């Protein structure tokens, strides 16, 4: 008889974030806290405001957030007068792009530190554009990493949930030699990092300023369940080589496995698929007839979600498996915008049919839940 362990509640938060949420730590934390507690509220019979502020998951719970959730934390690291802060962060009705103005203000007030980062990273990248981007994101890398770790550590402790905390541009260690797009998983008992993954195949917008993550893939076993998870950062989920590396990992018997994809699609969502990113060689199984005929959502499902699901389906040592892709919705100062649709595709046992839960909108926030 298969030993299933406790059921895992999966909460996929398709967040809709703007500069308003990133203006201060309390605002951002409260936004995440309220959405996680709304997701687990049905577990409790308590309904008062006081009890809502105390809601914690009563059984194993996995919360997933989109890629780059931590990237925009640098917005709250720039000191400025109140009138400027109101101009940049609190005017929801503005039709003007203000990100360039924000960057200009930041460089004017931090020029010495920016030049220092340019000098320190001079040999890291070949192009000047890549050097400038790396120096910019390096400027507040230590501060954003500290905020990122504190924020999601507190959220995991306060909600008793395992949290896949999107990703953040960060240095791997104190030597500051490798700069990655990294995703961390926080466990609920101590709020510590229990798994760390990095982007192995940066896309064209990233390849000029971040490094390719080369550490071997790791998995995390969620306590009180028989479920292991592996985290893929966005475009890595399209690459067969990534799944080949995971297939080398041996699991104990009677285990289940989930690929967690944290993703962010910059730009419009419902457009024809232009093909693989030009920064990588496309896999050999790409059908040329799909170029500009598949929609981007169809391509994501066919070449990323199904690729991960099929790689698990071919294994004989798993009694259940699935793929969760969490996309984000974004509008930072009307300049950096992103759309997407989140998907949960799971098979709880070998005899069960696939179960698909898909977001019905790419323009608004949405909470998707299921048990596994």
Automatic annotation (TrEMBL):
Gene3D superfamilies, per the entry: Carbon-nitrogen hydrolase
InterPro entries found in the cross-reference section: C-N_Hydrolase_sf
SUPFAM superfamilies: Carbon-nitrogen hydrolase (SSF56317)
Taxonomy, superkingdom: Eukaryota
Protein name stated in the entry: CN hydrolase domain-containing protein
């Amino acid at each position: 008889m298969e030993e299933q362990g406790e059921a895992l509640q999966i909460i996929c938060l398709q967040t809709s974030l703007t500069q308003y949420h990133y203006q201060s730590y309390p605002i951002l934390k409260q936004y995440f806290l309220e959405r996680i507690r709304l997701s687990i509220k049905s577990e409790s019979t308590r309904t008062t405001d006081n009890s809502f502020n105390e809601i914690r998951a009563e059984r194993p719970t996995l919360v997933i957030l989109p890629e780059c959730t931590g990237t925009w934390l640098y917005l709250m690291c720039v000191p400025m007068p109140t009138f400027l802060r109101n101009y940049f962060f609190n005017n929801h009705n503005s039709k003007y792009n203000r990100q360039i103005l924000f960057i200009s203000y930041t460089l004017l007030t931090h020029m010495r530190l920016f030049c220092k980062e340019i000098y320190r990273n001079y040999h890291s990248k070949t192009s000047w554009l890549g050097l400038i981007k790396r120096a910019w994101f390096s400027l507040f890398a230590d501060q954003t990493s500290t905020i990122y770790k504190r924020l999601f550590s507190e959220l995991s402790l306060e909600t008793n949930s395992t949290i896949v905390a999107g990703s953040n541009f960060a240095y791997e260690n104190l030597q500051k030699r490798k700069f990655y797009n990294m995703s961390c998983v926080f466990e609920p008992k101590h709020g510590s990092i229990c798994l760390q993954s990095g982007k192995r195949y940066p896309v064209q917008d990233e390849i000029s300023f971040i490094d390719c993550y080369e550490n071997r893939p790791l998995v995390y076993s969620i306590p009180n369940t028989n479920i292991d998870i592996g985290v893929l950062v966005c475009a890595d989920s399209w690459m067969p080589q990534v799944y080949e590396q995971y297939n080398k990992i041996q699991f104990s018997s009677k285990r289940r496995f989930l690929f967690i994809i944290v993703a962010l699609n910059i730009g419009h969502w419902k457009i024809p698929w232009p093909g693989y990113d030009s920064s990588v060689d496309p896999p050999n199984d790409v059908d040329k007839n799909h170029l500009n005929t598949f929609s981007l959502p169809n391509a994501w499902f066919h070449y990323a979600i199904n690729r991960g699901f099929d790689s698990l389906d071919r294994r004989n040592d798993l009694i259940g498996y699935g793929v969760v892709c969490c996309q984000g919705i974004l509008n930072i100062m009307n300049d950096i915008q992103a759309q997407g649709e989140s998907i949960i595709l799971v098979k709880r046992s070998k005899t069960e049919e696939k179960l698909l839960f898909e977001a019905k909108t790419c323009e608004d926030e949405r909470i998707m839940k299921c048990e596994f």
